[in-house]
Amino acid sequence: MKKSLGANTLAQPTPVWIIGSYDEAGKPNIMTIAWGGICCSKPPCVTISLRKERHTYAAVMLRKAFTVNIPSQAHAPEADYVGMVSGAKVDKFAATKLTAVRSDLVDAPYVQEFPLVLECRLIETLDLGAHTQFIGEILDVKADESVLAPEGHIDPAKLRPIIYTPGASQYYGLGELVGKAFSLGKGIGE
Amino acid sequence: MKKSLGANTLAQPTPVWIIGSYDEAGKPNIMTIAWGGICCSKPPCVTISLRKERHTYAAVMLRKAFTVNIPSQAHAPEADYVGMVSGAKVDKFAATKLTAVRSDLVDAPYVQEFPLVLECRLIETLDLGAHTQFIGEILDVKADESVLAPEGHIDPAKLRPIIYTPGASQYYGLGELVGKAFSLGKGIGE
Fold first, then answer.
1. Taking the model in full, what pTM does it have?
2. CB–CB of B124 and A126 under 8 A?
3. With an 8 Å Cβ cutoff, is A150 touching chain B?
């Protein structure tokens, strides 16, 4: 027997992604989101949701571009901080001592110290209420060599992404390897 | 110096969510997705992306409803299996010995054995290419008592959601508690 918890956003896991943008004045800014995910394989697209009152909202609307920066667990305090203060008031790069780097392909900065970066071109917006969805076509993914497996793919155990859990409002690390996708379930139903 | 990995979907973490629907004939079906996330707080909404050729695509289009079922790590083999076979050919509930329960509020089944369930009413679709985004308003969240903390919220360490990592194509468990959101970063920049 399941207990009803009402209409809310208690899904798990959600990501801890840092959105990079340049504001109207050209100042680089970053903010944290947990409402987002990959939304298309071809073209590769990612969706992020922002509130209209956010400094990043106006910046992405203006520049038609953003980056998704994926921090390692070691940068969880910085990831938390840039979600608590507004880029309208604070230079978050200066406050966190993180480094803004101009993207190669889009008009948005990325975070040098975060090991995985997606450069995104805004292709759709969808106003849903409190949040607006921004859909970005991923034009390039950049990764630090230190998080790559010998085969060339990103090694999750080296990347150590952070996981956010709504309701509990907690950050978690990545746990143990459970198994290989498209393999673990073989044999069921046979 | 970051290495370019090209235009692709190598973001982490992504969820392992099981989408429940009734097909045209009324048969309950489930499939796995990793392309999705929460997309609005008010009204509470979730986005999932499906390929047009999927059996679930036609079902959700027809019924205007779906469930998001969040399995615990113990059910990772079943979660993997229902992503590998088509509901057009296989009764996946029978094959996995999982139990379909009719939702209270929407025209879709949920999985009794999975501890967290979102009942969703389809409110928007957006064709992006290989995938179409389905946005569901979350009308209710249901949880097993066994995954609730004494304070009433969902305890991530009891839920044990599964994390998918594109590229590596691996499933991971939830790791250690890193810290409290809106708290861990306090003191930075002061």
1. 0.98
2. yes
3. no
ipTM: 0.97
Given a cut of 90, whether residue B177 has pLDDT beyond it is yes
- Asked if B70 lies within 8 A of A117 by C-beta distance, the reply is no
CA distance B118 to A21: 33
- What CA–CA distance (Å, rounded) separates B129 from B81? 25
- Contact criterion met (CB < 8 Å) for A13 and B161: yes
- B13 touches A: beta carbon within 8 Å: yes
**CA–CA gap between residue B76 and residue B71 (Å, rounded):** 7
A155-169 exposure pattern, b = at least 16 Cβ within 10 A, e = fewer: bbeebbbbbbbbbbe
pLDDT of residue B190 exceeding 90: no
Residue pLDDT, tens place only, A97-140? 999 999 999 999 999 999 999 999 999 999 999 999 999 999 99
Measure B24 CA to nearest chain A CA, in Å.
Answer: 23
Here the tokens at position A104 are 């190669």
Closest CA to A147 of A112, A176, A115: A115
